[in-house]
Structure formats: C-alpha cells, structure tokens
Amino acid sequence: MNPFTLFANKLSILFRRTRFRSELDEEMAFHRDQAEKDFIATGMPPQQAHTAAARQFGNATYLREQSHNLVTFRWETVAQDLRFALRQLRHNFGFALTAVFILALGMGVSVAIFSFVDAALIQPLPYIAPNRLMDVAENSSMFPRSNLSRADYEDWNRLNHSFSSLEAYGGTGYLLRTASGSEPVPAARVTSGFFRTLGVKLELGRDFRTGEDNPGGAKIVILTHGAWLRRFGGSTDIIGHSITLDGAAYTVVGILPRTFEFAPRAAAEFYVPLLDKNGCEQRRSCHNLFGVGRLRDGVTPQAAFQEMRAIAAQLEIQFPGSNKGQGAVVQPLSKIIIGPVRPVLLTLLAASGLLLLIASVNVASLLLVRSESRRREVAIRGALGATSARLSRQFVTEGLLLASAGCLAGLLVSNWAIAILKSLVPKSMADNLPFLSRVGFQTHAALFAASIAILTTGLMALTPILRLSFQDIREGLGEGGRSAAGRFWQRMGANLVVLELAVAVILLVGAGLLGKSFYRLLHVNLGIDPTHLATLQMAAPENSYPKPEQKVALFREITRRLSALPGVESVGITSDLPIQCNCDTDWIRIVGKPFHGEHNEVDERDVSPAYLPTLKARLIRGRLFAEDDDSSRSQKIVINEALAQKYFPGEDPIGKKVANGDLDPKSVREIIGVVANVREGGLDDDLWPTEYQAMYYSPGTFVAIAVRTAGDEKAVLPELIKTLHQLDPNLGTYGEITMTDQINSTQSALIHRFSTWLVGGFAIIALVLGVVGLYGVIAYSVSQRTREIGVRMALGAQRSTVYKMVMRQAGWLTLAGIGIGLGCAVGASMAMGKLLFGVQAWDAATLAAVAVVLGTASLAASFLPAHRAASVNPTEALRAE
Amino acid sequence: MKKPDLLPGTLDMLILKTLTRTPLHGYGIAQSIKRFSDDVLTVEEGSLYPALQRLLLQGWVKAEWKMTETNRRARFYTLTAAGRKQLGLEVSQFEQMIAAIGRVLSEPA
User: Which residue range or ranges hold the Transcription regulator PadR N-terminal domain (chain B) (predicted)?
Assistant: First the structure.
C-alpha cells in the first residue's frame, strides 16, 4: 500500500468530515432499508423484517466507529480525548483546582529545595578539576581538623610527593584607609600559588608570582570582584595603584572574577601574599593556617593522607616540644566547604520529598473518588462499545492533563519558593554560603522537575486505570455492583490514607524534634546574662598605638567615655566575645604537676577588669582582675570551672600556677579566681576549659567591646560608635550587634531556625493533607454505606452504634498511620541526628505529642461523617436507592 | 443453522471480485456475494462499510452517488486499475494458500 495515497486520502476526508459521516449514514440506512424491503417481499411482517434487517447488518454504532477510525488520524482521537477531559475538569472545577494546587505545592517545594541541594552538593565547586583539590590540615585529640603552623606547612610542602602543589591560606583583617578615615576589612593571606592551584583565572591584572610570598617581598594585593566594585567603583585604573592597609602601601596587582568564591574565607575582600612571618608564625607551635593541595595524577586521597601522616609523625619526633600529638588530615576540599550545610539540606530534601509523596497520594485518592462517581458513565460507554483500552486512554488523558497543569503550576511555585528561600537566608549566613549564588533553576533542577513530573503524571494516569482494571465494567450497570466497588475503594483508599498519615507523622516528629532542639539551643546555659548587652568590634591602628602602654591608655579611656554615656551601666573589653568559637586557644601545663608533653588545650581570652562583671559572669572563688593587673605586675589569670575541674580536681586552684609547655618563666601565670563557665564556643559546641588573662597585661589590636545597659541595648549602638570616633576617628569599628541578636544569628541557631521553620511548614501542610485524606475516605465510605446504615437503623441499631461503627473505622486507620509513622519517624530522626541538639530521636514527649495532635485532628475530621451517618433517616436512606 | 464465517482477510478480495463485473452499491455487493456463494458465505453485512472505506482509501475502488432503478440515491463502487491489480495479487496469493492446504489434506493418512 502507498502511504502517501493513504495520507492524501485521509487528509482530503479530514476537510469534509461531516459530509463523510452523513454519506456513510445514508449509505448504511439505504442498505438496511433494502434488506427490510427484501424481507417484506418474502412475506415477513414489517416489524419482524425491520428487526431481521438490523440483526443481519450488525452493530451500526460500532461499524460506523470502525469506519471513522479508518479515515481519522491518530492524533485526532487524542485531541478528542483532550477536549472531553477539559470538559470533564471544567464540570468539576473545584476538584481540578484542588488537585492542581496540591500538586503544584508538592512539586514546587521539592524542586525549590532540590535546587539548593544541587547548588551546594551536586554542582562541582567552581575550580578546575575540583575533585582533585584536598583540604590539608593538622589534627590533634581536641581538634579533628586544626590549623597548620607555618613551619609545619613549609616542611609539609617541602617533603611531600603527593601534591603537585600545596598552598596555605589564613584569615586576617586590615584597617583600610578611606576618604573618611579607616575601616576594618576582612582579608586573607595566601601563598603565591593559591589561585593557580584552585584553577582560578584573574579577571584583570595578574596573579601572584612564584616566590612573591617570600619574607621581605613587595606588598601587593589582589581584590575580590565585590571589593573592587564596592570600594573602587570597578575602575580598571586601580591596577598598579596602591591602597593603604594598616598604614602600609600595597600595590593592587589583580582583580578576581565575579564568580570567584572560597567559602573558608568567604568574607575576605583582599588577598595578600603570606610574606613576613607574624608573631605567631615564628613559632612552630602556633597554628594559624590551613592547607589546600592539588593531588598529583594517579595519587589517591588515601595515599596522600598516608604520606602526610608519615611526614607529621617524622616532625613529631624531630620537634617533640611543639609537635607532640600533631597528626595530619587530608580530605576533599568539597567536604570542608559543604560539610556544615549538608545535613540540613538533605533533611529538607527528604522532608520536601515526603511532602510531595503526601501531595501525590492525596491527588491520587481524589482521582479515585472521582473515578468512583463516574462508574456509571464508564459502564454506559463500555456498553455502547467503547473498549477498555479506549476508556483507559480517556482516563490517562485526564490524568495527564491534570498532572501537566499541576506541574506547570509547580514550576511557578518552585521559582517563587527559590526566591523566597534565598531571601530567608540572613546576610551574615549567606556570606559563608557562596553556593547560594549558584542556586537557580538549572539543568539538574530541570531534570529533577521533569522526573517528578513524569512520576506524578504516571501516578495520576495509572490510578484510575488500576481502578478500572480491577473491576468488570458491566458491574457498574447492575445494582449489586455498588457494594463490591465500595469495598475495593475502601481498601485502596484506606491504604493510601494510612500512608499519608504515616508520612505526616514522620514530618511532624521531625519538626517537633527540630523545634525542641532549637529551643534547647537557645536556652542553653550561657553563663552570662545576654539581655541588655550591646557589643561591637574595634581595631586600634597599630601605627597610632604601637606600644602596649598606649593601647592600655586607649582602652581605659574608651571604658571611661562609654561608661559615661546615659543608660550605660558598665563597659568591658575582650579579645573574643562569648558564643563565638572554641578558638584562639593556648596550650598550658600545670606548674608542679608531672608533664609528659600532654596536649592541654584551653580557650584563651584577654579581658579588661570590668569585662566579666559586665557579662554578669558568676565569680565562684578568688577575685577578678583589678585595674593594676598590668605588665608592671606578675601575670595572673582567672579560669573557668571546666578548667578547674579538669586540671585541679578536688583541689583549690587559687594560687596555683600554669605555664606554656616549655615552662618558660615569662609564661608562668598565677590563678587568682574561678568563674562559672561562660559559653565561649558555639551554642552546640562542648564547653571548653578557658583561661582569662588580663587585657592590660598584653593588649591586642583587634578587640571586642561589651556594654551593659539599663534600657534598650540596641539604641546605644550608634552612640557607642559615635563616641569612639570622637575619641579617635582612626579607630576602626564594625560588627555592632546586641548579644541577643548575635546569639540568634549564630550559625547553629540559624541552621536550626531555618530547618525548624521549613520542616515545620512541611509538617503542617502534611498534617492538613493527611487529615483531609482521612476525612475523604470516611466520608466516602459513609456515603457508600448510607443504605446499609439505613437498614441497620431500621432494624433497631442505636445512633451510638452507628457512631461507634464509623469512628472505629477511622480509629483503626489513624492508629495504623500513627503506629507505622512513629516507627519510621524514629528511623528518620536518627538519620538527621546531626541536626538534633539536646534531644534524642526517640524523644518520648515529642512522639507522644505528635500522636496526640494527629490523633485528635483525625478523630475530629472523622466525627463529621460519623455524625452524618448517625443522622441518617432510615426510611429516606432505604428509599433513596 | 450455523453457517461458516468468512475466512479472515478474504472480504476485500470478494468485494473486489464482485466489482469486476459491474459497479454496485453496498447492498448489491452483499447480495451478490451471498448469491454467488449459494448462501454459504455470510457476512455481518454492515462490516462491508469499514472494508469499503479501506479500499477507497487505498485507491482500489472509486465511489460515486447515482440513482437506483427505484429512484433512490445510492453510492456505487467501481473497480479501479489499481484495484484490478490488487485483486490479481490477492487471488494468486489465495490460490497458492488453497493449493498448499489441499496438498496437506491430500496426504494419505
């Protein structure tokens, strides 16, 4: 046969389709008339002849349909189905709208969360061959990953064969001279091959050259794109010009591209070569750098780790005083960068996946209810000759239409949700999450959305088919079909509802545990009174205050002037504010106790005399610092309870002495007091032993100021800065924040708040959808059993019995859902254990609360249909059928 | 009395053969097949029409509305050259098959 003739003939018929139909009808009518006439001619009565002619002719509708199918194109039936489906959905607009809304919500949320997961965990870091980049660090018993000392780095760099290049970086800050004074800016010091090792090409100017990081080298600087735009207006003239950092001239040699990101030093605006060794870097025992290395071809991370560990062991033998217990750790750079957000993102992804599951199940059960109410329509169409394939195609078309609408709306929702979620991440946190700039609707997200769309569409299309194939279509016409179908639907719908309730339990438990963690985190014992406490950071320019006495004088003047401000009760100065990190540590040994090179690591804080009283830290024994605890007298320290318990168990530590590992007489200091633990590390970090040294003994350049106020602490912040600048316009000030705000915006608090709110939101939606699903099942089952209930009541059943009957069914479903859900929830919570703080995955109170909430909501939802059932009028119920 | 159904795939051939003699309308074709087969071959008469549409689409027959002797409008089908060729093809295939079946049946038991 010739496909072209066929196509041309079909096409010509397409344009005279109506005529084709009427001609065919006429032809067939003519045929039957002729046959009838011939039968009459043989003497048959007219009525009988008519019937005989029709019988001989066959099923006219079916034959006409066959002829139509011959001349129509395949797509025409699809279009026809679509038109029909649209009409169906328009008739049930409420149903369609609900389904589309639920699908859009489920899909939109999960695609949005996925786009974050994609940007953070799936997309490679924006470097060349990022999987060959390793984070290289030291490690000790207290710190699984600790900074490298510069001397160790130099030895590691010299001795290793695993890395084609091994670079070091460390954070720093400078006072940048600006038109209006000076401003503290975050910066990073890096070895000269740093950008080459990452594989970053500069946008303008040149990279550091090999050797430009040698001590005594020229002062040069590379700017980030952001700093270049913000501070120098993006002018290309800046290359070759000098800027003043800490009073010294640095020549700008290059500008980094806009896309450059380096999360460990995300805030840095300036990159300078390591150059001269600062005080810390002259000692092998002082750790202030991190390493990043590119593996040589063929070297595995494991092999590199083994080699670095061997080198560290060798250095430990060579330098027992400084390197005792110092190992090495090599891990993928990506692990360091995405580590902290990984559990949050995976939890959110899982939660949004569960929400999507609930949404799909909900829509699927809506579809089931609908296919149920259309059983008669289906039966009639089947009786008229529609094959079950044809009917299925109709349902698939409807499912497809619904799913496509839902998915399209879902894409809109996801775009919108991405924007909202991005804006929800606070600025302070966003700085440390450079991957946020890569979040968007990209290839992976599109693929993810497509696969979700295919899955949901499949589900939507399959549900009614499954429903149809389970049942003989003809049954629908008969009276008796009803109860059988009702049972089927109840079984299927009931399973779906149990699934929905179980998923809702998982989400509710997750949200409950996260919420409890968040509460515990914010109510952890701080050891200070965080209310009415204003804080800010300050830098005293080294060239204005080079000598310790000058700094002490400055700090005393600052304390005096700020204390005089109205509403200020007291003013303290410290090297580090509380609730920052277990960092800026010191290694101590106890004078007069046996020592074998133990690694006694403690937090070290330099504080002004008024600092601890300003925080309202509680003095337990001895005394705090006095104004005259300065370099004119012997060095003294105040320790916290943790230090006292760890190193002086059962002893009075007052009067005891500690020193550095080598017992250098200059390092010996006397303990004069013990304070209750002040939380120096993050909210979810362990409490560390801490020593407080007198700030006036050895004042630093970068300090933090804490101000206790009588009233609103936020209101005094601008006043503090103004006063400092009146004292000396060259004082750099930044980071002004109240202690309460600071606690609320610590990374752990933010991560907890973020996950609590999102998972909580998902859980509430899940609860509503689950309960609505249960309501649907019970209500439907009641409507199906109206007659049965009528019969029971006619036979004398009490209303209470009917209530019991309905509520028992709902109760079983709820129990099953809650039971299965609680089991899964404990498992799921254990998987997100890293996010939990101060609460176990099997926290009984949370589990019980969830069971009560869901149980109450479910029973309330089933009460309505139960009430309806109990109000059935027996006579009407019996007559209705 | 149960009569044998038409062999599958032979309806097109029978229609084409019937039309070699003279143009006919659908009813005429049905009557003609019945008569020439001595009432042995019966078809559900209506199934002629999907078959006729198929033949029309393939271009093996042509159709044209004419008046019958009783003055009613009816669609008359005429064999085309392509249809004649197709008939030859189908007949020869059919005869080959019948001969093959015959050989199998004449095999001594």
Answer: 15-87
